[in-house]
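FAQ: What does the model actually see?

It sees only this:
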Amino acid sequence: MAKNTTTTVDPVKHQCSFCKKTITIKDQYDMPIFDPQTGFAICNSCIREIYHFISEVDTKQKQTEKQNFSVELDEIIAHNKPHNIKEYLDEYIINQDKAKKILAVAVYNHYKRMRYGYNQDIDGVEIEKSNVIMLGPSGCGKTAMLLHLAKLLDIPFAVTDASSLTEAGFVGADVEVAVRNLYYAANKNIDKAEHGIIYLDEFDKIARKSGINNSITADPGHEGVQQALLKMLEGSVVEFTARGQRKHPEAPTIKVDTKNILFIVGGAFIGIDKTIAKRIQQTDTNIGFGAKVKSSANKPKYDELIHQVRPEDLMKYGIIPEILGRLPIICTLETLDEAALLRILTEPKNAPIKQYEKLLRMDNVELTFSEDALRAVAKKAIERKTGARSLKGIIEDVMLDIMFDIPKSNEHRRVVITADCINNHTAPQLTELSD
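And it is asked to produce this:
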């Protein structure tokens, strides 16, 4: 008879390179890291301890960063009271006093809200975000005001054109691009980005085409974008790819929490003054023989109407109610008249005239603008209906030839720009001066 023979296989054992214990290998998880060529191995117990140690270090670092930022918040709040912010903006922005006050209070309260969040005292009161919607004509100073505000607070600030955004899945930029722009404005520092300001320009361009009525057709560049922005405005973790490519499983992603990001949206909202006027007329209508007949001369002007804007006017324009609920502060800006444009040319710290005077001074040339020339520049800007945005372009057009010829000589000279130079493109007066 043949004998039954049983063979026993010796269990595989390896020594951990860290704890030096000999581990019996029952499955791959007993020794997750093993190099058969060198014999280097790490057991699962050591991996757990290493992970626990790294987690503790990360937690301590986050607590330290939280404390440091808490101190920074105290300094920001102490040095940037609303009246301090407005005084700073007055140095660069002409007029728009109401808008300056609204923004100063909104930003101050936003940083107080963040400071409150870092306190450990919990009383059950949660301060909600106060995002802002800005309405004003083109070139009235919306973007310039926010740029100087971000410079004062020394925080990341990013401008994104809302008209370029589309709903996810359509050709165009997803809404996450706004957060990605802020991430790069913060020099890829996620903590800084999570406490910055995002400005969505041309926000009126994403108003739904059907106005207050729901549309039965796809509206990827309008209502769809507004729907996609809802969670971001309220506060959520936004995930995006570092290089801006479409998200897919293999692409590395970056996560940014928008809970403490202040969102400011702005646009010209062309035609909304007519909506406001219609609403006011409906509430003030008198019917009967005793009713007052209003002539066209008595119709309120744009500046009078824009300050009376209400959320229902924006809904009729095409902004969905859910978005308006997340933009509780409405900031309105007036048009710039000739007197305001004259002041913008010369008074602010970075006034266009001061910039050109400094440029020519580097070539040993004195630049002078006559009063008539400044008025001619302001009138041209009003004709173009582009506000302060076109002032520098008008001056550049006149100064091109003179700035091209001046570097040919180092002699001390004076250049005088007259109204004739602005209106008829005649050559500026150039005279040599004795040192």
